[in-house]
Design brief:
By secondary structure, this protein is α/β, with parallel strands linked by helices. The chain has three helices and nine strands, in the order E-H-E-H-E-E-E-H-E-E-E-E. It has one domain: Rossmann fold. Strand 2, helix 2 and strand 3 form a beta-alpha-beta unit. The protein binds 1-O-pyrophosphono-5-O-phosphono-alpha-D-ribofuranose (PRP).
Length: 178
Amino acid sequence: MKNELEEVLLTEEQIRTRVSEIAARITADYEGKDPVLVCVLKGAVFFMADLVREIRVPCEMDFMAVSSYGSSSDSSGVVRILKDLDAQVEGRHVIIVEDIIDTGLTLSYLMKNLKARNPADVQVCALLTKPARRKVDNPCRYVGFEVPNKFVVGYGLDYEERYRNLRFIAALPEEMLE
Ligand code: PRP
């Protein structure tokens, strides 16, 4: 599959190293706080799975699925909850775990939505950020890597549901995009 992809942006090893570093920071920051990590489906599943296994303080996992109205490659900012959290987060330390912050619109919605549930605190942990596409800036405490303004796939990120299972992150050539 590597051949049809333009270039590998982040190798499996780079991702593993960075995930461990972020997990170490979360471990240091959340001692005694029993955080709830909220994975935003589907893109963040592998990041979440690898991250929580490197965190050395007690923590919980929960999942949300959201869909933005509009085309699949362009976020509209109008978000619909397809699956909500199982648990109440009132009074809890919440960490939103995202695969990528692109326009920032999904995250803005999620922050507003979760803050309305009166948690003790909401922070964001995103593996990737693509600043060139940003429309709204949200404070993001933990960021893995900055990526260029290209369509990126792998390690959870898809193009029309494909490539999520790649162990690395790559850019899709322009000509492959419809
Ligand atoms: C991606 C990603 C974020 C959102 C970021 O999800 O996981 O949730 O888009 O885009 P934004 O910053 O422009 O709002 P997507 O809707 O592709 O769903 P998926 O994770 O199921 O692939």
